[in-house]
Amino acid sequence: MTDFLMRDDAPFGAKGWAAIDGVVTGVAKKLLVGRRFIELTGPLGIGVQTVPIFGVGVQGSVVQVTRRDFLTMRMIQQDFMLSALDIETAKAQGVGIEIGPAAAAAAACARAEDEMIFGALIGATGSKRVELSDWSEPGAALNDVVAATEALVDDGLFGPFALALSPALYARTQRVSRGMGRMVSKLIKDVVEGGMFRSPCLQADQGVVVSLGKHNIDLVVGQDLVTAYLGNEELDYRFRVLESLVLRIKRPGAICTLTR
Q: Is the pTM for the entire model greater than 0.90?
């Protein structure tokens, strides 16, 4: 493990780290939504602080790179404490250390990552927009999603498409479509073959349809989610769950928001 994490100085050995790593990874996999449909690039290493981003356009009759810029990696982190008394008790009794604080820190980092991703998708300059209709009406949800995919197709984007919805909008798709005999969500999934997802990081009246592929959008990871040891504070020990990453939106037109 990289020296900057100082894991060898922690008050426990490989077994304790395995427990912490297991819960941090497990919590992240359960909670992270953006990574389920946005492709990853990396990890490139903690030392990578910026990554290039290129804009593609037409000059004359030739498609080429028309913009070159750099994005700064964002560091996401959350500290947690483990009690020296709890660690010594675990050693004396031959049981595992209490890893609840590590799980909570991982959950905070996962939430911060998705807030970054969905905030960038919803706020992307140059994205498309479809105004939400009343999803309590039969066929409204499917019609809005189809309208979003058609807006992307009209701009030369042919999918696969992924859909992310707020919990409130997602709940409205969990019913049988009148006259169709199928769940609304099943009908929508036929349109968004890249998947349909629910995220609490979206507001109640927000959804987003994305044309997938690294040529459109990718999530660049410097340091993937990992736990470092920071040292002791009085009789307790401080740790940090951290990651560095940035969402790289290469083609804003590959995004269509659903909102009022």
A: yes
